[in-house]
Amino acid sequence: MKSLIITGAGSGLGKALALLYAKQGFHIILIGRTLDKLKRVEKEIRENGGSAQSFSVDVTKPDEIRPFIQDAAENFSLFGLINNAGVGHFGPFEGLTQQEIHEMLDTNVLGSIYMSQAVLPYLKDQNEGLLMNIISTAGLKGKVNESVYVASKFAVRGFTESLQKELEDTNIEVKAVYMGGMDTPFWDESDHIKDKSRLRSPEAVAEIILNSMDEDTIVIQSKGK
Ligand SMILES: NC(=O)c1ccc[n+]([C@@H]2O[C@H](COP(=O)([O-])OP(=O)(O)OC[C@H]3O[C@@H](n4cnc5c(N)ncnc54)[C@H](OP(=O)(O)O)[C@@H]3O)[C@@H](O)[C@H]2O)c1
Description:
Layout: E1 2-7, H1 12-23, E2 27-32, H2 35-47, E3 51-56, H3 62-75, E4 77-83, H4 98-126, E5 129-134, H5 147-166, E6 172-179, H6 202-210, E7 217-220
Parallel strand pairs: 1-2, 1-4, 2-3, 4-5, 5-6, 6-7
Helix pairs in contact: 1-2, 1-6, 3-4, 4-5
The structure holds NADP nicotinamide-adenine-dinucleotide phosphate (NAP).
NADP nicotinamide-adenine-dinucleotide phosphate (NAP) binds next to helix 1 and helix 4.
């Protein structure tokens, strides 16, 4: 059974993608820092007849990632990676703390880079696979009160576009996904979005992504745009 690693799979878009890809017949390797959340998603997948396993891995920690991926490659038939884990801190630029700045760059940028670097050799060996980076429309244009978040997503865009070129002669598909706002726990600690109800659900966005698998660049604008 082909296995797909999804980071940040315990909530929001990661969870929605996990449920849908499991229905497509993939074994889902659910990754995040909070095992409880992942286990709940794993249970839901199994109850729907799918296959999944949960692992607590922090994508900002290369020393955790490397042995984990090595182990995963020995035990599963690794087919792909979806770099979905991400964090955001919003507000006027000068008010961001160093910790918030680090958290965004470490998770969104370095997390995607570390995970991809660990997984890619296995995909290259089999000359087949999928590498999908969940970016945001924040990776397409600057936005007020989102400066460092936008900077992190522009970085992931550059990383993804470069890998698309670097791997274009292989059978490894590299996909960049840019979506507008979604109604997920991402906004729980923030008042940056006033009315979450006007946002797309993560389930709807996951569905659009799966229906767009013939495209390398997937843009899902906010509702009403
Ligand atoms: N919501 C939106 O409006 C929106 C719009 C465009 C793009 N996005 C992007 O979509 C992606 C998914 O976000 P979401 O909206 O679904 O938010 P979410 O529900 O908060 O999901 C993010 C997940 O990432 C995990 N995570 C955070 N730091 C991690 C780390 N260091 N290692 C491993 N896992 C980590 C979190 O779980 P733990 O805390 O348990 O680790 C959480 O389950 C993010 O990349 C986000 O930037 C979101």
